[in-house]
Design brief:
Helices cover about 35% and strands about 20% of the residues. The protein is of the alpha/beta class and about 325 residues long. The protein has a seven-stranded parallel sheet. A six-stranded mixed sheet has the order 9-8-10-11-12-13, with helices on both faces.
Length: about 325
């Protein structure tokens, strides 16, 4: 009888790329009608955080596959290798819906193109889907990415956006990748998000991220220098961060949790401050922090939007020449 009930449910595919996506996917699945699903994780890091979220979701999955590939010098080769190693099951099986976040990822786009009759359920990929001129909203990609999507048979980002039945967001004050009538807001309740207790000494957390992927060495040194001025207590390392900044402070043991959950658990009801550059954690936890500081170097292409967005959330925005308080 239980097997018959499972067979009557809509059968879907859940695709993940990061630990944060995995955490948010769990929140989404808790809010949709009951489904059965296959699970696919595409990883470039094979991090403890990714494994933790994958294992949580895999418990309820019909089939689950963790596909990992270390990035090669040329991303085209990495993506082609991932596509070759993708189990046929995920392209041959018929799915009612696809649950995913990274609509700009070539392999994920190619999978979606093999299931054209399936609507998409999406959720935030950090803050990149909020950027007005970013890939998710503009649909614009470098020519190499466009050619790779054509080789893999991946439909354009704009076409994928049109297929989105519902997008789930934790950022209710920003325009997203679909019109408001297709957006549902998730009110996050991170571990130990209760009000702080009086008399407890708080912590300052520096939020790390793979800055070397986005900004120059000069800009990285500037962020490092500015961060030291705030004397943070703990370094929250990003899974993809190869060269953490040298701040002379201990690394927070996240125990496999995403940064948000680890900070809320470690702070244990104490007031806390956040210092970082433009990590999505600064956005997701700003409502719980007593102070949020964003260090935005000159070389950051979307600095103006990030500065405005940070101020909107009440953050202090610091640039090499400007200090702005909300």
């Amino acid at each position: 009888m239980e097997q018959q009930q499972v067979n009557m449910m809509p059968h879907c595919l859940v695709i993940l790329r990061t630990a944060f996506q995995g955490w948010l996917a769990r929140q989404v699945l808790a809010r949709v009608p009951e489904i059965s699903y296959d699970l696919l994780q595409i990883s470039h890091n094979n991090s403890t955080e990714e494994r933790r979220q994958f294992d949580c979701l895999a418990k309820e999955a019909v089939t689950a596959s963790f596909l990992t590939r270390t990035p090669r010098k040329f991303d085209v080769l990495t993506q082609l290798d991932l596509w070759r190693r993708l189990p046929d099951h995920f392209t041959d099986t018929s799915y009612s819906k696809l649950f995913l976040s990274s609509i700009d990822a070539p392999v994920i786009g190619a999978i979606a193109s093999r299931h054209k009759s399936a609507n998409l359920i999406t959720w935030d990929d950090g803050i990149v889907n909020l950027l007005p001129n970013g890939n998710y909203q503009s649909g614009q990609l470098p020519w190499r990415s466009i050619m790779l999507r054509r080789v893999l048979g991946s439909e354009p980002i704009a076409a994928m956006r049109d297929r989105i039945e519902r997008h789930y967001t934790i950022f209710d004050t920003f325009p997203n990748i679909v019109p408001p009538d297709r957006v549902s807001v998730i009110k996050t309740e991170f571990f130990n998000a209760a009000a702080s207790e009086d008399g407890k000494i708080g912590y300052r957390y520096f939020i790390g991220q793979p800055l070397e992927e986005v900004i120059s060495e000069t800009d990285i040194h500037w962020v490092e220098s500015e961060a030291k001025k705030f004397e943070p207590d703990w370094y929250v390392k990003h899974p993809r961060e190869r060269e953490p900044l040298v701040l002379g402070i201990p690394e927070l043991n996240k125990a496999g949790d995403i940064a948000e959950e680890a900070i809320m658990r470690h702070s244990a009801g104490r007031p806390f401050e956040l210092i970082g550059s433009f990590s999505s954690t600064l956005f997701t936890l700003s409502q719980f922090a007593t102070r949020t500081v964003m260090l935005l170097p000159h070389g950051l292409k979307v600095r103006s939007w990030l500065a405005d967005a940070g101020r909107k959330l009440g953050a202090e925005v610091i640039t090499p020449s400007i200090v702005s308080k909300h």
